[in-house]
Amino acid sequence: MQIDYTAKRSLKAGHVVDTGYTINVNLQSENRTFESIGPRLVALDGSTVTVVHRRQNTYQLTSAFITDTSTPDNEDMVEFLDSVISGEIFQLDLTGALADYILDTTTYRRSRQGNLNIFTYSFRVRAL
Description:
45% strand; two-stranded antiparallel sheet; mainly beta; 1 helix; Elongation Factor Tu (Ef-tu), domain 3; eight-stranded antiparallel β-sheet
């Protein structure tokens, strides 16, 4: 999966703030959730009316194993995730073409595999 983002925080050595970078991340898992946002009103007879304010697609993504020597490496992943953690827009090619996304939460998870510097990164994104 291709990720295009603008570096803002936790810059990797040699990278420059407000500069665009591209990384290609292999995924271990990708789970899509479709949601309609809006109230559902239920009458006394049981009939319902739903007012849809917005529809959204979210994806729960988990990277394949990332190491200090892989491409991308751990510094690339931390730079990307920290750079978009405050709602900055970035691009992914989840559906075969680059599209705009934001992180759907203000957290991501980095999970260590054993005692080595091998990690997976889990985060949720929302299509714009």
